[in-house]
Amino acid sequence: SDSVASPFRELQQLDQEKKVIHKIRPISPVHQPLSETSIRNEVREMKSAAETEDSVTPVRAESKEDRQWKEMKLQLNDLPGILARLSKIKLTALVVSTASAGFAMAPIPFDLTCFLIASLGTGLASCAANSINQFFEVPFDSNMNRTKNRPLVRGQISPLLAVCFAASCGVPGIALLTLGVNPLTGALGAFNIFLYTCCYTPMKRMSIANTWVGAVVGAIPPVMGWTAATGSLDAGALLLGGILYSWQFPHFNALSWGLREDYSRGGYCMMSVTHPGLCRRVALRHCLALIGLSAVAPLLDITTWTFPIISLPINLYISYLGFRFYRDADRSSSRKLFFCSLWHLPLLLLVMFTCKKSFLEKEDKGDLLGESHRRAMEIRLP
Amino acid sequence: GTGQAKRSSKRGSMLWALRLRACACSQGCTKKATLKKTYILGLGFSPPAHSHNDWIGPPDKHSNLRPVIFYVSPEESPLERRLREARQEAQACDQRFWARHNRAFRQEKEEFIYSRLKAKGLKMRDETGQKATLNAEEMADFYKDFLSKNFRKHMQYNRDWYKRNFTITYLMGQVALARALRWLRWKKKNVGS
Asked: What Pfam families does this protein's entry cite (chain B) (predicted)?
């Protein structure tokens, strides 16, 4: 879930890989006796190598400032920006929108207050989880290109403040969900925070199973949206969760394909590094699963039969890209799959919403059934 | 040269009250004192005299970690000193681990490229003088191998890092609380008089 960063940064980072390789100075495997001059030369070489590496990184306004020493004093006017980056506000927005999708798909009349409270609670819970994740990962984030500009890495905020911020988001967020919506949603929110911070984050460095745990973390928000609306864990909630769960694999596995060097050096256990075949197989498998899950939706009375029909081309396209990634196993196919996943999900959820089975339609059906039952009972009674 | 560095980091060496105590990390930091001294000499920066805060610098070229120069208050309480020393120790441990680790990565990567190119019958540089490279797919074997070779080392480091992180944050909390109580007492005293 913390893989969802700006796609453009991903592109730049993926492009840099080649350039960085070119700039590395050759180190002869035959060890030469180290003299004073050779040490000085090596230092000079490493300095210039590092400089050229620096010049290859994206030239942003920050990069020059980056090389200066900064006083570690909290700047209050920088604080909103710092907290936004600490809480991964863009990812939080995505999480809240998947929760809203879950709420919207629930078969109940739309309750605006409940919707807003559920969205706010989910957003706060996500902010808390993301902040704790960054609190746990400072030295690892420093060593990866994608994450080296995070607030704790740059010393813009102290770890104590990060934890206090997480608590001041998490506690009201879960309280809001438990008291303002229902205890089930609150429990799911609290469980998801725990799963993300205490299971997924440490597991990233221990076992490739972290990807499956992370997929569950991504699947829970739409389930929360559904339970916020209906108050119960119906099959519909699980189906929506299942769709988000399956989507995580093509999305993350494709992204991780281009980050193998950073993962290897940083000590992250990811399928793309340790089990590349499995990585591609799982991505393809779950692309195909999306087709199956879309077909189940009308069976559970969540959508009409138009949904699997309209969504078929979308799901077939991502499956095709998944197959290309499986077969070719190169950077271009992984990038195509990743970028497809970025528009595939919102489009699929939108189509799902437009094909949602009308509440009134279901009521009529229910009445018909009730009538036939009554008639049947009348016949039986003597 | 080293002479210049010594002058500019005079304040730096004052701020690093070296205490020869065994480092809490399990990396075997026996050369703690020497390590810190060479590290200070390399920083090449000293914060302005009037500043009462810590200063954080650009990422280190080897470890990618940002060095911090800690401010030593003349009225530093024992608790505050414990916090500062914990942060200094943690910084030294992290710096040592990542500098060594990243250097090993770069070196092993070069050796791998060299051996693969040799096996293919190619030289390190082609006719145009461009450095020959291996694409990401060919490097995949190296990445997998390097990760599994260093797995135990990472597990050890993870445990140490989590412990240090919690300890330091907890100490920060205690210091913040102590400071807040001190301020409240001072306020009460002033309001009283």
From this structure: COA8
pTM score of the predicted model:
0.78
* Residue whose entry in the numeric block shows the structure tokens 């002869």: A28
Backbone angles phi, psi at B19, to 5 degrees: -125, 120
Would you call A142 and B139 a contact, using CB atoms and an 8 Å cutoff?
no
CATH number of A234-354: 1.20.120
**Residue pairs spanning A and B at CB distance below 8 A:** 138
The token duo for A124 is: 């706060």
For residue B119, name the pLDDT band (cuts at 50, 70, 90). confident
Distance (Å) from the C-alpha of residue A9 to the closest C-alpha of chain B? Answer: 19
Euclidean distance between CA atoms A312 and A294, whole angstroms: 8
On chain B, the residues whose CB falls within 8 A of the CB of A148 are 59, 64
| A66 vs B contacts (CB less than 8 Å) | 58-59
CATH 1.20.120 location in chain A:
234-354
ipTM score of the complex? Answer: 0.77
The domain covering A78-233 belongs, at the CATH homologous superfamily level, to: UbiA prenyltransferase (1.10.357.140)
Residue range(s) in chain A whose domain bears CATH number 1.10.357.140 = 78-233
How do residues A133-152 score in pLDDT, each as one tens digit?
Answer: 999 999 999 999 989 999 99
